[in-house]
């Protein structure tokens, strides 16, 4: 729902970090519980890139699954389907989310 | 082709601004609560009731987030508390409040006597959960007609909650809402959040919410 404004943020960050370059590709890491829809992100990206340095850029997205670590016994697990906070080893529910919230720009590719 | 590493979170700017807002609140001795829920769960009625129970209404300010209209702010201002309306846009604007909106709205308020800020986020259980507003505590309101499956369906919002208000509890006999299933779903995404049952209609449970908010203020003051 707010992917377009997120894309605008992304463009601002890239323009600031890599000014005056034609971007060929953009690699993002998007966590499963980042709240961002990858489809909507791609859709917004294709609309917003026209007339910018990212006009010809390809959007590459790496999905990041949710990983948890138990605060009691230290066991870790990657959540397969549902988002349920439960230690994979012991009965504890006191688990920390270590991965899955990412909404990160990893790198851009530019012409030499 | 040349690869340039950037490695930054897109939400970093928002998170930093939210962090500095929190510091700013701390400096003024203000405790801020961010209230999230789907549309129609009863957030505004609960806020009306909470401020209604307050002895000193000059100590509270309400930030009312809505995509359109100032209807909620008008309701709250009748309670003689400071209120600012945040309209995110006339054409289906932003679906959540970002830290920058909060900062702008705070600038419009006289906060001299204020000790409590209540942010009523946009009615939406998805997006507001992603954006830190700069508040100290998150409150999620769920009304029983919405269903006991909602914590499982919107895990991020419920995961971030410090308090879950189960509202419209007076409707329990008329709807298929199973409290046990709700708690099971809630605990699977949030083992710690406090749960308080309320009815905005009858006012039951509202004093417990006020007490919880007082307790949060006290805990923060001790720190």
Question: Can you tell me about this structure?
Answer:
The complex is a heterodimer of chains A (112) and B (223). Chain A has 112 residues and is an alpha+beta fold. Chain A has one domain: hypothetical protein PF0899 fold, CATH 3.30.2320. Chain A has two helices and six strands. A three-stranded mixed β-sheet of chain A has the order 2-1-6, covered by helices on one side. In chain A, strand 1, helix 2 and strand 2 form a beta-alpha-beta unit. In chain A, helix 1 packs across helix 2. The mean pLDDT of chain A is 91. With 223 residues, chain B is of the alpha/beta class. Helices cover 36% and strands 22% of the residues of chain B. Chain B has eight helices and eight strands. Chain B has a seven-stranded parallel β-sheet with strand order 4-3-5-2-6-7-8, sandwiched between helices. In chain B, helix 1 packs parallel to helix 4. The longest helix of chain B is centred in the first third of the chain and has 17 residues. The radius of gyration of chain B is 18 Å and the shape is globular. The relative contact order of chain B is 0.17. The model of chain B has no long low-confidence stretch (mean pLDDT 92). At the A-B interface, helix 1 and strand 6 of A face strand 1, helix 6 and helix 7 of B. Strand 6 of chain A pairs antiparallel with strand 1 of chain B, so a sheet runs across the interface.
């Amino acid at each position: 729902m707010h992917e377009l404004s997120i894309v605008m943020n992304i463009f601002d960050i890239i323009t600031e970090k890599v000014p005056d370059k034609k971007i060929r590709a953009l690699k993002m890491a998007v966590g499963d519980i980042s709240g961002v829809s990858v489809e909507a992100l791609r859709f917004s990206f294709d609309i917003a890139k026209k007339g910018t340095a990212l006009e010809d850029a390809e959007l590459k997205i790496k999905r990041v699954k949710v990983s948890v670590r138990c605060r009691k016994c230290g066991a870790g697990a990657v959540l397969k389907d549902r988002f349920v906070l439960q230690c994979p080893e012991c009965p504890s529910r006191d688990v920390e989310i270590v991965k899955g919230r990412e909404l990160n720009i990893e790198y851009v590719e530019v012409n030499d | 082709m040349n690869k340039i590493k950037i490695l930054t979170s897109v939400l970093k700017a928002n998170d930093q601004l939210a962090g500095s807002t929190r510091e700013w609140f701390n400096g003024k001795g203000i405790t801020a609560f961010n209230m999230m829920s789907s549309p129609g769960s009863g957030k505004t009625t609960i806020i009306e009731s909470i401020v209604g129970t307050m002895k000193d209404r000059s100590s509270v300010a309400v930030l009312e987030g809505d995509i359109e209209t100032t209807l909620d702010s008008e309701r709250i201002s009748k309670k003689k508390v400071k209120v600012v309306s945040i309209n995110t846009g006339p054409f289906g604007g932003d679906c959540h409040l970002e830290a920058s909106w909060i900062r702008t709205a705070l600038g419009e308020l006289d906060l001299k006597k204020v000790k409590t800020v209540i942010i009523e986020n946009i009615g939406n259980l998805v997006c507001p959960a992603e954006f830190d507003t700069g508040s100290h505590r998150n409150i999620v309101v769920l009304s029983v007609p919405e269903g006991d499956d909602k914590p499982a369906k919107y895990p991020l919002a419920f995961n971030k909650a410090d308090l879950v208000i189960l509202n419209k509890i007076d409707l329990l006999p008329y709807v298929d809402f199973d409290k046990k299933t709700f708690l099971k779903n809630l605990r699977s995404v949030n083992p710690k959040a406090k749960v308080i049952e309320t009815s905005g209609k009858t006012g039951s449970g509202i004093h417990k919410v006020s007490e919880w908010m007082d307790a949060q203020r006290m805990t923060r003051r001790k720190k």
